[in-house]
Amino acid sequence: MHALPEDHIGVRMRRLRRERHLTQRAVSELSGISYSTYTKTEQGVIPATPHVIAAFARAVRVEVATVVGQPYLSELRADELDVLIRPIREALDVYDLGADPDLRPRQLSELTADADALCAAVRQGEIKQAAANVAGLIEECTTAAHTVNSTEGWLTLASFYRTAYDVAAKLGFSDLAQLSLARMDWAAQRGSDAVLGGMYQYLRALTYLREGKHRTGQRLVTLGLSTLQQADASREREVVTGQLHLGGAVMAGRAHDESQALSHLEAAERIAGRTGESVKVHWLAFGPTNVRVHRVSVLAELDQYGEAVEATTGLTIPSDWPKSRTSHHYAEVARAQMWTGKLEASFQSLLQARKTAPQQAKYHPTVRETYAGLETAHRRLPESFLSYGSWLSASQAARM
């Protein structure tokens, strides 16, 4: 009995292929995916990797989100998160209208503290809290920024826009994430902050990573690195530069460009040696730990799953690390463990991902696809396995 909806990725791939009147052989040739891999993925015999999903999406000309089924609307509705999306859209629309005469914003120092608190909430995995508060704070800070017209005001507004991006990206609303980033860039330019400009290119590159558009993503990484050269030398600049290299490493890994991926990793490692752990600098969690975590990610993207699992040996996540990043790491480890046949260990990693940041894990495509892969393996797993699937999809559980 399936604990997740029957509409898994393989089923969607088959439906999208048939809608375009394509054979499996034709999709294999258009996408560059081997025929054996494609047919097994479509049949659900093996889970879809991010590389396969991206290649398929490009071949049939759809968004990656369409293939993975995001946003997960029934789950969002059950968690009362769907109603929080429209207010964010509306708040993003008033960016250029000037100060709202009906609003009396608080002091910038208070708004800046709120912006930091929202960033912290996202990193702690409190997505609903951030989603519930960010729209009103964007509207308040928009009026404050237009009224004061200072660097602090525009950069605080840029931070709120970043939180809107984080919420949208984590819940699977790619169009809203892109709009939030455009607003972030608009505010950052008014704040004349080259470091924030570089970080904007990093976040923008991540949207192209999720969409499987690796060439454009790599160009944005290069642009971001160039933008950062315009900033004064500082630890802050080094941290964002290092994070851009980490993003570039994953991008290259997903494109199966091992040489470039390892080059980016090496550059990030050199920078991390100088900066040390910099968890709260722009809330990027950059440092030696993040380099090691990204090495696991890169090896998995290169389909070197055994090496990815080995790379976790001796890797200890610091207690002050963001829960959202830790949960993401456990999800990626679970995927690598599943592909190496370590099924029980994989499920334990999924449990860790949920325990660390449950709101994020529930809407994480890697968590859902790894769970589906474990279910397909038809092995004996703990009784808690099916309840995990019910948690991922409450609506399906109600029908069983």
Descriptive account of the structure:
The protein is an all-alpha fold. Among the domains are: 69 residues, lambda repressor-like DNA-binding domains (434 Repressor (Amino-terminal Domain), Orthogonal Bundle), CATH 1.10.260; 120 residues, no CATH class. Helix content is 72%, strand content 0%. Helix 12 runs antiparallel to helix 13. It is globular and about 60 Å long. The relative contact order is 0.10. The N terminus and C terminus are likely disordered.
Biggest sheet statistics:
none
Oligomer: single chain
Percent in helix: over 70%
First CA to last CA: what distance? 9 Å
Structural classification: mainly alpha
- Average pLDDT: 92
- Helix tally? 23
Series of H and E elements? HHHHHHHHHHHHHHHHHHHHHHH
Q: What is the number of strand segments? A: 0
Assign an overall shape: globular
The proportion of strand residues reads under 5%
Low-confidence stretches: 1-5, 395-400
What is the radius of gyration?
A: 21 Å
Compact summary:
The chain is mainly alpha-helical and 400 residues long.
Name a few traits of the molecule.
disordered C terminus, mainly alpha, 400 residues, 434 Repressor (Amino-terminal Domain)
Please specify the SSE layout and strand pairing:
Layout: H1 9-19, H2 24-31, H3 35-43, H4 50-60, H5 64-68, H6 73-78, H7 85-93, H8 108-123, H9 127-148, H10 151-171, H11 174-191, H12 194-210, H13 214-228, H14 235-254, H15 258-275, H16 288-301, H17 305-310, H18 323-339, H19 343-356, H20 358-362, H21 365-376, H22 384-392, H23 394-399
Helix pairs in contact: 2-4, 7-9, 8-9, 8-10, 9-10, 10-11, 11-12, 12-13, 12-14, 13-14, 14-15, 14-16, 15-16, 16-18, 18-19, 18-21, 19-21
